[in-house]
Amino acid sequence: MPQRVKVRGCRCQPQSTLTCCSYTLGFFYVTGHGIPQTEIDAAFALSRRFFDLAPSAKAATTGESSNPHYVLGYSREDTEEGMMREGFLCGHDNSRMRELWPAQLPEFRTQALGFMSKVQGVVARMMSAFALGLGLEESHFLQHMDVADDANATALFFNHYPSVVGRALPASAMRIWAHTDFEMLTLLFSTRPGLEVCPGKTCASAADALAAEKWRDVDPVQGALTCNLGDALQLMTGGALKSTYHRVRAPRPQEWQGERFSLAYFANVHLHTTLALDASGAPITFLDLLAKRAATVPLVLEPVTGRILVTELSGKAGGPDFA
Fold it and tell me: Domain containing 183: what range?
């Protein structure tokens, strides 16, 4: 079970606990975050209204992208068994989102941005604590994470996993394949089981993730956020803090077989922020991370429908494999 960290009203108190969790498990729960349950419930209701739209209305919000691993707007992932997941990746109010707000839900933009602002406040406190826990200036990470900057890559992913009732899925079926997140930090809101993690330093590569036998369930905890670190933070800390492999499995026979929703807030730096230097001394940016993932796990995006064709999710793992 991931550890729990309380962040409300703190500047220095939680830094050692937070950093310890990040050195070891890399996944942890956060309580005392200050976001009322009513606002979380409203965000889930907004998500449901979007996914209840007609397929053509959802597909109309698909953004242009040269990399299917990071598509603002709508996308869906299909396997041989059909659609396993669909989502809407919502950036902050910048130029890249200008044509992507769903026209049939005029309230979507205001409500989504309001919720994202609340979550970003939690991120700011956590990133300050990370910096202090590492002996750095409090603004060390946050100076690169201004969501008002047009090039900031922070986004909220509205996830919808369709019902599996009546679907003959193999026991190894995955709703999301094993992967690390690209970003600095992920804050997850979820209501159903299915998320699994391969803890911290025990799973340092894609090969480890595929071979691992110690995947752990990370079930939602009422009132808590589930948090994990991403590749960008691993790079910016020289590998001291590890991005963590995780996946979402199909439900077990005794579990809820219906729809599953989650909200994943990907807190990030700017697209061109230098995260580290490679062996030759050249900068590694967030865009470089995306390019590396695309080269490792190639996907195909259909721009008109938003479909991303994925095969054998259970046999794939995507991560940075840093030396």
Answer: 3-145+157-316
Exposure string for 300-317, b = 16+ CB within 10 A, e = fewer: ebeeebbbbebeebbebb
What CA–CA distances, in Å, run from 43 to 102, 110, 179, 277?
15, 11, 25, 38
Tokens matching residue 130: 């990370």
* Number of residues that make up the chain: 323
Return d(Cα 34, Cα 29) in angstroms, integer. Answer: 14
pLDDT digits (tens, 9 = 90+) for 207-254: 777 776 778 888 888 889 999 999 999 899 888 888 888 888 888 888
pTM > 0.70: yes or no: yes
Token pair for 156: 């909220």
Kindly state whether residue 151 falls inside one of the protein's structural domains: no
Q: What is each CA distance from 187 to 61, 224, 267, 277, 278, in whole angstroms? A: 24, 10, 8, 27, 28
In a domain, 257, yes or no: yes
Residue-level pLDDT at 72: 86
Is residue 116 helix, strand or coil?
helix
- Position 186, amino acid: T
Tally of domains in the chain:
1
Give the separation between CA 296 and CA 312, rounded to whole angstroms: 15
